[in-house]
Amino acid sequence: MLVDQSRETERVMAASQLRSELRGEGAASARARGKTQIDFDRPGNVMVRFAAFVVDLLVEFPLQVVWMRVLEPFTDIAPRTYYRGTSPLSFPGTGLLGAAVAVWSVHLIYRIAMEATGGTVGKRLFGLRTIRYSDSTPLGFGRAALRETIGRMAAGLFCSFGYISMLWDPNSQGWHDKVAGSQVVHKVPDD
Question: What span, in angstroms and rounded, lies between the C-alpha atoms of 163 and 158?
């Protein structure tokens, strides 16, 4: 186990050193040695990230439906004819609000929990992972929460310009990635 940790530490340090060389003046020497970002982790392709997002929505949907059914007695999510009137536990006029709370709470819990450990189901399926930009380690819950709340709100401003900016950013980082100091990369297969 100690050998595996040592190997992983060496790989992370080599990837971090290569990243800094490729950004700075050492880029020519790194390329001369035959090393590129493809040898280690490279930024995740925007279209692959979008495909992973769609897979994540498909994973979240059944969870959201179940959670809406759990919240149903406390809200007016179901049509009134279902209960032949309102439930004594429900609060009138909370149907749309209850549905929104159910959908967004599942979305946030799923995203934060999965991103904190390295990536969502969709990202893992497509060979992507979410890491700290500075040291290539998993985000952790604090940074994942920052990325998925404040970062996503910032990225959604100005007609989602923060997401569109990933197309020309050299590291394919959206504003949500920059806020949290994260990056989505292709995972390098273990040796």
Answer: 10
